[in-house]
């Protein structure tokens, strides 16, 4: 394993520990490869009955992909492409697919920041996932804030959120806490931070085959402690505004009311990439009709177009490199985004037989 990923097996459970705290466990290509190697090794290992993925830091489970790497590699390559960049997204999305269909319980301790790529390595599929949040959990798919789109399977899991909650999360990029994560079905259990040491002890002491039930029993008394889900109280408002047929119509709808929640959503959207909000809206519409493999293949096509377009390079520059928080989006105005601009992102880059994720099933 690399210096940022620790693995071990104990009591028939495989443990993956992310240990890159200074970067909030942002995923590098080496980390993606380490995660993949461990999960492939344990998938068919009769001595491993479950997998736990966790962090050494209380601040973050995983804040996403290494966007400084995206900037350095993407900016220095013709049309924003390079072998390393291509490998990163191909291998990250293949990892997301591996996790979704993992044949053993896959337990993610989603304590602290869980964003972007962190969601990709924690969501899993319904047959394997056990997703635990705490009051420290800060969850988001904030890609539109850096000129990207909700990837790592976001076109699948956001498009299947109740009502219009997926559109709300994808288009605003706003952060939610534990109660909202549970309500949107992006988490399964709440455990108070003060009880995480006890949970860790339970996990260490319980055989892997019994972990899912043991964790559910441990967490059950704390469910109400997660608090009230803001998205539940605002559900009618979200469904009303975000059901509008276009991003422009959604923002116009939000602008008509004085409700503070609606105004916060509108204010967030006014800072996001107009083009990538429109691409995201179309992405979620299409993703709702696709399986995980096809969602990831679609996202892989979009990410190639995205780096060629350069929107993500500008977004990372403004947010992380220069930190001026003044991205020069192209186009700058939502009114200037045309259907043709959006459709171009969905144009196939490779024939089906040559798609880098063609083997996903």
Automatic annotation (TrEMBL):
Keywords: Hydrolase, Isomerase. It holds the Pfam family ECH_2. The keyword Hydrolase applies. Residues 14-346 form the Enoyl-CoA hydratase/isomerase domain. InterPro entries: ClpP/crotonase-like_dom_sf, ECH_dom, HIBYL-CoA-H. The keyword GTP-binding does not apply. It comes from the Bacteria. One of its GO terms (biological process) is L-valine catabolic process. GO terms for molecular function: 3-hydroxyisobutyryl-CoA hydrolase activity; isomerase activity. PANTHER family: 3-HYDROXYISOBUTYRYL-COA HYDROLASE, 3-HYDROXYISOBUTYRYL-COA HYDROLASE-RELATED. This is Enoyl-CoA hydratase/isomerase family protein. It comes from Rugamonas brunnea.
């Amino acid at each position: 394993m690399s210096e940022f990923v620790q693995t071990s097996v104990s009591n028939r459970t495989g443990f993956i520990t992310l240990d890159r705290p200074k970067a909030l466990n942002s995923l590098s290509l080496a980390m993606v490869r380490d995660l993949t190697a461990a999960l492939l090794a344990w998938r068919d290992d009769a001595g491993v009955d479950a997998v736990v993925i966790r962090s050494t830091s209380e601040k973050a489970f995983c804040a996403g992909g290494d966007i400084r790497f995206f900037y350095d590699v993407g900016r220095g390559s013709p049309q924003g492409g390079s072998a390393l960049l291509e490998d990163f997204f191909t291998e990250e999305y293949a990892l997301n697919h591996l996790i979704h269909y993992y044949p053993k319980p896959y337990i993610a301790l989603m304590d602290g920041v869980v964003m972007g790529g962190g969601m990709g390595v924690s969501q899993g599929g319904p047959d394997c996932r056990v997703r635990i949040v705490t009051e420290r959990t800060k969850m988001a798919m904030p890609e539109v804030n850096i000129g990207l789109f909700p990837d790592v399977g976001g076109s699948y899991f956001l498009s299947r959120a109740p009502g219009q909650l997926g559109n709300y999360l994808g288009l605003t990029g706003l952060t939610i806490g534990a109660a909202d994560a549970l309500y949107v079905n992006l988490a399964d259990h709440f455990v108070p931070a003060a009880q995480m040491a006890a949970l860790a002890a339970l996990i260490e002491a319980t055989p892997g085959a019994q972990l899912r039930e043991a964790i559910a029993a441990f967490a059950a008394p704390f469910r109400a402690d997660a608090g009230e889900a803001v998205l539940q109280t605002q559900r009618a408002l979200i469904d009303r505004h975000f059901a509008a047929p276009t991003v422009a119509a959604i923002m116009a709808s939000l602008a008509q009311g004085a409700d503070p929640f609606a105004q916060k959503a509108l204010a967030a959207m006014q800072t996001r990439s107009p083009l990538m909000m429109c691409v995201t809206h179309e992405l979620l519409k299409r993703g709702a009709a696709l399986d995980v493999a096809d969602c990831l293949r679609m996202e892989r096509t979009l990410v190639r177009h995205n780096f060629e377009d350069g929107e993500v390079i500008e977004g990372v520059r403004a947010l992380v490199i220069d930190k001026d928080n003044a991205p020069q989006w192209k186009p700058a105005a939502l009114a200037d985004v045309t259907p043709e601009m959006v459709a171009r992102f969905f144009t196939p880059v490779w024939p089906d037989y040559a798609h880098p994720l063609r083997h996903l099933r």
